[in-house]
Amino acid sequence: IQALVIAPTRELAVQSQEELFRFGRSKGVKVRSVYGGSSIEKQIKALKSGAHIVVGTPGRLLDLIKRKALKLQDIETLILDEADEMLNMGFLEDIEAIISRVPENRQTLLFSATMPDAIKRIGVQFMKAPEHVKIAAKELTTELVDQYYIRVKEQEKFDTMTRLMDVAQPELAIVFGRTKRRVDELTRGLKIRGFRAEGIHGDLDQNKRLRVLRDFKNGNLDVLVATDVAARGLDISGVTHVYNYDIPQDPESYVHRIGRTGRAGKSGQSITFVAPNEMGYLQIIENLTKKRMKGLKPASVEESFQSKKQVALKKIERDFADETIRANFEKFGKDARKLAAEFTPEELAMYILSLTVQDPDSLPEVEIAREKPLPFKPSGNGFGGKAKGGRGGRRG
């Protein structure tokens, strides 16, 4: 094994393995990924078959080292990816234990969105005269992402978000929740309201997590609901909207979240839902990104209803233009003629639309449990003065 990559999550380990394999395929480079939640016996077998690069999570790497299934004496390059996230997840001791087993004569690369003292100590202790490369704050967010916020009461968030989705009709959207319970409840609620949605967080087994991500990438899902940790490092093209159902307590997490959209030269949109007592966090984010979010007016019930009707009409038009679908019409010919004799075309069309579009007055109720509120942050002036170009403005 010539190189070792330490990553905080299974998703990031798998994604890094896939990218490294793609880069090195023509040279015959063997890349293995190891992580918890999957059979360690299969991973040991894969390592025995040979590997040039190993990507893994700290706990599983340390377990394999202790079993003598992972030998590090030939490591030439060590990479610590998302080091601050691994620190937040409590992996510091595991990381130090792994590094202490790697040859001192090596190249070490450490990537971190922030540089807390504990991460600096790793640099001092395990790296020789390291070069510190810092990305300027002005580059933290892309101009291709339109950033909005909506000031909304906690109990009104879900209906506000789903009405916005009805109007925007995002091709691919990611919804961020603060906790695993929140992700589960949002996923269930979105399904009840008719969205093709699935969620990912740390408690899901690896096979299901990978299946959900594959379905999202392939367009079989419209909405992916995720925690910050589960979504770290995801590289999915075509995400048009990011919804921050819960504003992040850590402003760097906001940068990671909205970085899921506005990629490869395509525009994107992020919308953050902010409770009145969370306005201080909004301003902390703005100070970090050096960019002011625009206030957005929530979509009304009527706007949501009209948008859903337009979607239904376009689908009917597409279906009528599809010869395969029209070929099935004949089997209903006799019954259709009977209905046509009893009802007007307008009445039949209205009935079809009523079956297709949910009545806004009879939407199924969705209850989202309240999460523990974030510690209060006083609201100041924020970055950049008055909001420009927004709808709804900023209050309080």
TrEMBL record:
Domain Helicase ATP-binding as annotated: residue spans: 1-133
Domain Helicase C-terminal: residue ranges: 144-304
PROSITE patterns: DEAD_ATP_HELICASE, HELICASE_ATP_BIND_1, HELICASE_CTER
Gene Ontology BP annotations: response to cold
Coiled coil (residue ranges): none
Gene Ontology cellular component terms for the protein in this record: cytosol; ribosome
InterPro entries: DEAD/DEAH_box_helicase_dom, DEAD/DEAH_RhlB, DEAD_box_RNA_helicases, Helicase_ATP-bd, Helicase_C-like, P-loop_NTPase, RNA-helicase_DEAD-box_CS
Matching Gene3D superfamilies: P-loop containing nucleotide triphosphate hydrolases
GO MF assignments: ATP binding; hydrolase activity; RNA helicase activity; RNA strand annealing activity
Keyword field: ATP-binding, Helicase, Hydrolase, Nucleotide-binding
Family: Belongs to the DEAD box helicase family.
PANTHER family reported in the protein's UniProt record: DEAD-BOX ATP-DEPENDENT RNA HELICASE 47, MITOCHONDRIAL, DEAD-BOX ATP-DEPENDENT RNA HELICASE CSHA
UniProt protein name: DEAD/DEAH box helicase
Organism the protein comes from: Streptococcus pneumoniae
Biological classification of the source: Bacteria, Bacillati, Bacillota, Bacilli, Lactobacillales
